[in-house]
């Protein structure tokens, strides 16, 4: 319980107010008292208590109406309310609890019981606040850890890439009379600068929080256009086989460019995983789509499956962090990070299932319009 809990008493009977206030103050609590619902609301506007003891039967504005107004105010909604009632009917008690009260006390008031109930609610309120503060600190710690991971990965990747650029520039200075050497150096510098540009663009995709233009798009058509873009843009080898159980009439509300970008990232990862394994079923990437109606809102489910060697156990728990990857080289490891970021911004998600004998399956879930 806080050093001095603040209680607000609301009762139109002066005797009840006086006796209750005396009992609670003797228990070390700070008590304010008012005689009407309107006065209760005025008091809340000045000072927010830890708990309200609210009489049900009052003129002008009864306890239920007062409780409703308190619950409708975002600044007061978390204040616990204990009703005081002279009626012992089950219906009124249910009505009080449904209105937002956490407990009720019946008249004639047993002061020892009332004190015990008040102390219980104050302890619960204290635990709630401590838990909320802890969640806030944990959230801040997670954000700090994420920022640290991005900063560390960015520093490592850019340092390596810039090191390549500087190294080949130095080599060119020593080989100005060897055109073939200069040409190879320029090619390596161009590749490294391209990687740097890619890293910066990928970080920009994650950081961008501006409003996205969305439109209703047929799910199958969107998946097929993503595969076509992948085949055109990606250097990964292998055939993409698309199977769908989704009717052509099913649409999703999304930004086409961003959705395609996310799916292409997953297809690229699958292609790279296949390429890393010799004769991995001829490098086939399987894409399957179906509807999941088991949730409150129907979901489009897209599964991208490769025939690679699975996920390295050392990175399995960190695979969605920036720059975490199985791949060799630098400027990599952002595909899953970007894909999940895009999907979660639109109430979807990306999950990974690993099976070392049959490769990796990555599953997109997305709400159906």
Describe what you observe in this structure.
This protein has 369 residues and is an alpha/beta fold. It folds into three domains: 6-109, 3-Layer(aba) Sandwich (Rossmann fold), CATH 3.40.50; 150-207; 215-367, 2-Layer Sandwich (Heat Shock Protein 90), CATH 3.30.565.10. Helices cover 49% and strands 18% of the residues. It has helices at 14-26, 37-46, 63-71, 90-99, 111-174, 179-207, 219-233, 256-275, 335-344; strands at 6-10, 30-34, 51-55, 81-85, 103-106, 215-218, 240-244, 251-254, 285-292, 299-305, 349-355, 359-367. The strands form three sheets. The chain has a five-stranded parallel sheet with strand order 2-1-3-4-5, with helices on both faces. Strand 1 (6-10), helix 1 (14-26) and strand 2 (30-34) form a beta-alpha-beta unit. Helix 7 (219-233) packs across helix 8 (256-275) and helix 8 (256-275) runs antiparallel to helix 9 (335-344). It is elongated, with a radius of gyration of 32 Å. Residues 328-332 have low confidence and may be disordered.
